[in-house]
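Can't paste images in this forum, so I'm doing it all in text. The chain is below; anyone willing to post the predicted structure tokens underneath?
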Amino acid sequence: MKVIRRLQKTLMKSWSARCLAVRKVTQDNQGKKTAGVDGIKSLSPAGRLALVDRLKPGDKSKPTRRVWIPKPGTKEKRPLGIPTMYDRALQALIKMGMEPEWEAKFEPNSYGFRPGRSCHDAIEAIYQGIRLTPKYVLDADIEKCFDRINQEALLEKLNTFPTLRRQIRAWLKAGVMDGYQLFPTKEGMPQGGVSVLRSA
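Text version of the structure:
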């Protein structure tokens, strides 16, 4: 465990890793032109380099900006939290450090929010499991799952070093701006930005 923590700390300080994180959210990501509460939609090359230099885990975070997007096939809308460009880049950096550890811990039949896995892989696994002998298949949708996650239990499960724990707690507690009103986040986690915690 000490070796993993040392590697994660080294990655957080790596200039190359920070460059990759900034590139991911400012150039590669589909939502790269979506502004958080700070109003920043895009960065110039000089702005991206400045962001690389500032990127460092701490204990502060700005609230996410709530955007309502339509649910396919219904008139309902679901909330999406858009973090600031800085927070998205920091989330990408922390995800790079945490993902290898958690990938090693996951069950092989887990497909949600995992790199290199998709719905098609899950469908194929189900097909292979039921094609020779009939079995029951349960389809379950946990209503408002991410909205009701116990934040303290999640932080305890992550079992990471104090700097990361403080940063993740700051993201969870930062609140949500809906229009001009700030709503505190006492439970759950924002949906949007980089999915650092969803697979944990």
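The radius of gyration is 18 Å. The helical segments are 2-13, 15-28, 45-54, 85-105, 119-130, 151-158, 162-173.
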